[in-house]
């Protein structure tokens, strides 16, 4: 009976001894610090910019009749969606959830564009893109120069280049393709 009790004791202690010798998991790394105020403001504005550009560009599918405008709009949706995904990942690491609502002015602009089709839509859509990208470019350039967050610095620099490209395309599509366009010719 004593032998049986010793075996039972040994069998019950062995698993505990095995656990005691197992290495402990390393502690989780500390979360990144919250954004500095300027970075938090940038993240909010950049997110709003992406959301608005995506919303306006999606209208071109049904409102534009110009293949070049539609192709540009498709590029805008793709690029700004990818930018928003990158920004969301950075924000999540800092415990921030990106806003998804449009401002009242942005909603008004979208409603106005929804009421248009064809050339009027193209003209106004491109004007919105030129203005929006003109306004956004310094936001991204300033963040790329001033932030100390390496992820935001990289994001802002890459996005500034894309915003500049979009601005150039919008301006080119907005300019008259024909020097006599818009002039009346006597009949």
Tell me the number of structural domains: 1
Number of strands: 0
In DSSP terms (H or I, runs of 4 or more residues), the helix count works out at 6
Query: Could you give a short account of the major beta sheet?
Result: none
- The third-level CATH topology is Ferritin
Q: Do you know the CATH architecture?
A: Up-down Bundle
Order of helices and strands: HHHHHH
Shape: elongated
Describe it.
The chain has 187 residues and is an all-alpha fold. The chain has a single domain, classed as Ferritin, core subunit, four-helix bundle (Ferritin), CATH 1.20.1260.10. 74% of the residues lie in helices and 0% in strands. It has six helices and no strands. The longest helix has 29 residues, at 118-146. The model is unreliable at 178-187 (pLDDT under 50). Pfam families: DUF4142. Keywords: Signal. This is DUF4142 domain-containing protein.
Topology summary:
Layout: H1 2-21, H2 37-63, H3 67-93, H4 104-114, H5 118-146, H6 150-174
Give a quick set of tags describing it:
Ferritin-like; mainly alpha; elongated; 187 residues; DUF4142 domain-containing protein; 6 helices; signal; 0% strand; 74% helix; Ferritin; single chain
Short overview:
The protein has one domain: Ferritin, core subunit, four-helix bundle (Ferritin, Up-down Bundle), CATH 1.20.1260. The chain is 74% helix and 0% strand.
């Amino acid at each position: 009976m004593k032998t049986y009790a010793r075996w039972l004791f040994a069998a019950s202690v062995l698993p505990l001894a095995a656990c005691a010798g197992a290495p402990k998991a390393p502690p989780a790394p500390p979360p990144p610090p919250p954004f500095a105020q300027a970075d938090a403001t940038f993240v909010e504005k950049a997110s709003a910019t992406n959301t608005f550009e995506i919303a306006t560009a999606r209208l071109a599918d049904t409102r534009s009749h110009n293949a070049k405008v539609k192709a540009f709009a498709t590029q805008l949706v793709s690029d700004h969606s990818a930018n928003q995904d990158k920004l969301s990942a950075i924000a999540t690491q800092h415990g921030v959830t990106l806003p998804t609502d449009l401002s009242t002015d942005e909603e008004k602009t979208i409603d106005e564009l929804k009421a248009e089709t064809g050339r009027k839509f193209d003209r106004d859509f491109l004007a919105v893109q030129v203005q929006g990208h003109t306004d956004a470019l310094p936001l991204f350039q300033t963040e790329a120069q001033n932030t100390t967050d390496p992820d935001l610095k990289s994001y802002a620099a890459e996005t500034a280049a894309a915003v500049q490209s979009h601005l150039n395309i919008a301006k080119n599509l907005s300019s008259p393709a024909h020097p006599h366009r818009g002039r009346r010719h006597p009949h």
